[in-house]
């Protein structure tokens, strides 16, 4: 098969041990990010299998209509960036392992790295030291503070496991799991935001969760509190975090995600706050995590090539293929 891999920013995929699984296939790896339909259509015109790295590129109907040879999209995890219905109409199989029971430990670790970095002003202190200054402020100790976990899924539960004084807030089914794991749960969303010293968001981006964190929620946080977002930027109401930081509630933020990615605008308002620690969506970007993810992605390609597709999120396309004798 002719395989295209998009958005491999650092040309990492071909260096993974699991890349050998694609031996015998014709593989093209693209290291820059392109979203324009014309450019993508030109690049992918001969592609039979498209490999996506998470949600870096949107695959919509207008592009799919211009990819007549495309048979398979293989990726891992959620797929809000893919027009699955358009794929089904065009006979394109979408395979995406949901890796049940396997959280991204890399994302959980980065969450804690951001919490610690923001609490101790590590980026600011490091920049000051390199500029010839010695100590520029006083940090915060996390011991005895309350960690709030908003969304108790695989990653949220892992982050909670690193803490001690943990309070969870989520939908009722997730709250029941948190209580079963021995964690306290808030009585209301309002109490959750008022009570916690650090609040970390761990929700999937769905219609029900988009903008779930409102300006009034952030206004309930303490001036000494910190909001952490390593999940998705649109979980927060547009402009609400910047306005909240200007108002001093919460006093700190640590983020790994942005509304538009890749984000290359150094004038972005959120980045102008000294009390904000920010990283460029690297929560899952470790060599070990890449190996874990691409083993699934490449196994899906091999299964499709063998005529036995797995992890298919649009099974109706298989019915149509069978009817055509494909």
Categorize the overall geometry.
globular
End-to-end gap: 15 Å
Helical content stands at 25-40%
Which secondary-structure class do the elements indicate? alpha/beta
Record the SSE blueprint.
Blueprint: E1 2-5, E2 26-29, H1 37-43, E3 49-51, H2 61-64, E4 72-76, H3 84-89, E5 93-97, H4 105-119, H5 122-130, E6 147-150, H6 154-161, E7 166-169, H7 172-180, E8 184-185, H8 189-195, E9 198-201, H9 215-219, E10 226-229, H10 240-247, E11 252-255, E12 276-278, H11 287-305, H12 316-323
Parallel strand pairs: 1-2, 1-3, 3-4, 4-5, 6-7, 6-9, 7-8, 9-10, 10-11, 11-12
Helix pairs in contact: 4-6
Features:
alpha/beta, 12 strands
Structure description:
The protein is of the alpha/beta class. The protein has 12 helices and 12 strands. It has helices spanning 37-43, 61-64, 84-89, 105-119, 122-130, 154-161, 172-180, 189-195, 215-219, 240-247, 287-305, 316-323, and strands spanning 2-5, 26-29, 49-51, 72-76, 93-97, 147-150, 166-169, 184-185, 198-201, 226-229, 252-255, 276-278. The strands form 2 sheets. The protein has a 7-stranded parallel sheet with strand order 8-7-6-9-10-11-12, sandwiched between helices. The longest helix has 19 residues, at 287-305. It is globular and about 60 Å long. 36% of the residues are buried. The mean pLDDT is 96.
């Amino acid at each position: 098969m002719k395989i295209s891999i998009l958005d491999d920013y650092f040309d990492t995929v071909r260096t993974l041990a699991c890349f050998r699984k694609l031996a015998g296939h014709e593989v093209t790896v693209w290291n820059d990010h392109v979203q324009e339909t014309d450019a993508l259509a030109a690049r992918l015109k001969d592609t039979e299998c498209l490999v996506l790295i998470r949600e870096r590129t949107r695959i919509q109907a207008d592009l799919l209509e211009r990819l007549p040879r495309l048979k398979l999209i293989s990726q891992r995890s959620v797929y809000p960036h893919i027009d699955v219905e358009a794929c089904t109409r065009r006979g394109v199989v979408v395979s995406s392992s949901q890796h049940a029971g396997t959280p991204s430990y890399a994302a959980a670790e980065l969450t804690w790295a951001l919490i610690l970095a923001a609490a101790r002003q590590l980026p600011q202190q490091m920049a000051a030291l390199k500029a010839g200054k010695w100590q520029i402020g006083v940090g915060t100790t996390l011991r005895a503070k309350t960690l709030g976990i908003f969304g108790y899924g695989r990653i949220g539960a892992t982050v909670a496991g690193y803490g001690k004084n943990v309070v969870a807030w989520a939908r009722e089914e997730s709250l029941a799991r948190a209580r079963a794991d021995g964690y306290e749960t808030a009585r209301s969303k309002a109490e959750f935001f008022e009570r916690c010293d650090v609040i970390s968001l761990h929700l999937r981006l769905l219609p029900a969760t988009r903008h779930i964190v409102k300006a009034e929620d952030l206004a309930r946080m303490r001036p000494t509190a910190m909001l952490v977002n390593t999940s998705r930027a649109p979980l927060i109401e547009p402009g609400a975090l910047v306005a909240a930081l200007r108002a001093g509630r919460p006093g700190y933020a640590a983020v790994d995600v942005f509304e538009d990615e890749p984000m290359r605008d150094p004038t972005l308002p959120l980045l102008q706050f000294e009390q904000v620690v920010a990283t460029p969506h690297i929560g899952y970007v470790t060599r070990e995590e890449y190996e874990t993810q691409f083993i699934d992605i490449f196994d899906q390609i091999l299964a499709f090539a063998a005529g036995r597709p797995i992890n298919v999120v649009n099974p109706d396309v298989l019915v149509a293929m069978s009817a055509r004798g494909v």
